[in-house]
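User:
Hi there, any thoughts?
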Amino acid sequence: MKNLTIYAMAALASLLITGCNKPAENVAVVNGEAITMEDFVQHLKVKPEVMVVDNNGNVGSARVAETLAFQAMQDLINQRMILQLAKDMKVEPTAKEIENEVTFQKKRDAQYITRLLERGLSLPAIKASIKVDLARENLLTHSIKVTDQEVADWIKNNPNAFVIPATVDSFWIFVK
């Protein structure tokens, strides 16, 4: 099912980008009945709700602000703009920085790459996503310079920032 969604989105993106009018292609067949690309695109254009997973792992539905296709196009445009700006500002991540980030993420979570591959991403897609993330970070931090002395002074002058106040876990059972 995950792969079907990825293939369908890829087919939709190629159709939208090229703007060509190809004959109807089937994106799925259910008990011998075809779901055409046209059916899929029309549904995607007006789909008002999506399935989401909350922080507790519960699945539910949520209304969308814009269509999924529009949101996907916005994402792609934003990613391209970030990469172009990073290149213009000469803070584009290098291949070595991207590899270092992959290594760092794998140290944090040994299943990092495996989980993303299972979701249908390829290794080049994972690295492309990391490149965008690093470019965004580089753009936000490129003119920020903090010396070790400034850090030491701040720590010395703000000791309360490092004090964790006492906390209590409590449970209540209220019975009428």
